[in-house]
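stage 2 :: seqdesign
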């Protein structure tokens, strides 16, 4: 079987039991895909070690069966009907009330089964992302965005149907599934694949309609986007980094650009600046949570005035 950063593992850990048998072969993942970051001047003074061969990130063809199985299920189940229902459920429920830091601690028991590149816990991944930005002197709002960007994975504990509607890359539903999405053939099992409208190039959308009017597959990005939009003072760039960070077919693959408006182009630049910190910090040293906590608690207070968040 193909190698995997996280194999074998206990995935369904909703009760917070100990996760067992995490393999520690993440050393082999110190790799950057130079073509993905070329042109991003925000990376000129990057914290990522240029000597490391980064081409091994996001190697889905070589990924283990866990990752492949995850995406098959996700691609078969993310339909328009499911997405409408998920948004409706979200709107009419408050799942929990807790601070950002408490959310980070709660999320710590989740191991992301879509991710071929890390076996670390989520709190460590969040701190790695934020710390890489801090080292590079990125603005405080961006450091905070790095710290919280995956907190939407909390959905897993609040009524998700599995991990397929929480983690993984995102794409559009309501129009044809783009070939630039990883494992594009797995969409053949999606009931919308041959739909008379959803199966067409533009589907229910029209060119130039703006990304705020398209439906991204439901998961941690969309969920946290709505929460931060309503309950933080973070700027539009931060909200875009949160909403689109898993939208690889768009920010890296170049798909769906026909739906963008002018504002979206500015947001795309912000997401591209964010993305390398999310991805390539996965090979950085494991952060010491307690040591970093005071700095980040202060940063959280700057942008979340109510402190206790409705999740
Ligand atoms: O496996 C990962 C993980 O779920 C990330 O949180 C998400 O943002 C990425 O797009 C995905 O590839
Ligand atoms: Fe994510
Ligand atoms: Fe992430």
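stage 2 :: out
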């Amino acid at each position: 079987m193909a190698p995997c950063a996280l194999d074998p593992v206990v995935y369904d850990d909703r009760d917070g039991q100990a996760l067992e048998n995490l393999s520690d072969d993440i050393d082999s993942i110190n790799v950057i895909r130079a073509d993905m970051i070329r042109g991003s001047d925000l990376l000129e003074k990057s914290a990522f070690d240029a000597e490391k061969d980064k081409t091994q990130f996001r190697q889905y063809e070589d990924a283990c069966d866990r990752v492949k199985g995850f995406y098959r299920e996700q691609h078969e189940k993310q339909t328009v009907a499911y997405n409408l229902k998920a948004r409706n459920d979200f709107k009419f429920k408050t799942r929990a009330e807790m601070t950002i830091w408490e959310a980070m601690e709660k999320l710590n028991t989740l191991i992301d089964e879509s991710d071929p590149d890390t076996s670390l816990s989520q709190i460590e991944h969040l701190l790695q992302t934020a710390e890489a930005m801090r080292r590079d002197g990125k603005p405080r709002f961006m450091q905070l965005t790095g710290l919280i960007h995956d907190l939407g994975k909390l959905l897993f504990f609040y009524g998700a149907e599995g991990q397929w509607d929480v983690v993984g890359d995102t794409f559009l539903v309501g129009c044809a599934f783009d070939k630039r999405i990883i494992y594009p053939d797995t969409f053949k099992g999606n009931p919308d694949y041959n739909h008379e409208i959803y199966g067409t190039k533009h589907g229910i959308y029209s060119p130039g309609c703006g990304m705020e009017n398209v439906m991204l597959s439901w998961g941690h990005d969309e969920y946290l986007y709505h929460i931060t939009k309503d309950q933080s003072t973070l700027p539009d760039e931060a909200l875009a980094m949160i909403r689109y960070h898993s939208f690889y077919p768009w920010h890296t693959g170049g798909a769906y650009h026909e739906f963008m408006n002018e504002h979206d182009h500015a947001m795309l630049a912000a997401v591209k600046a964010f993305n390398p910190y999310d991805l390539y910090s996965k090979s950085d040293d494991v952060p010491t949570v307690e040591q970093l906590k005071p700095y980040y608690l202060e940063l959280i207070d700057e942008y979340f005035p109510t402190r206790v968040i409705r999740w």
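stage 3 :: structure notes
- The chain is about 40% helix and 5% strand.
- Residues 125, 149-150, 278 surround fe (ii) ion (ligand 3) (CB under 6 Å).
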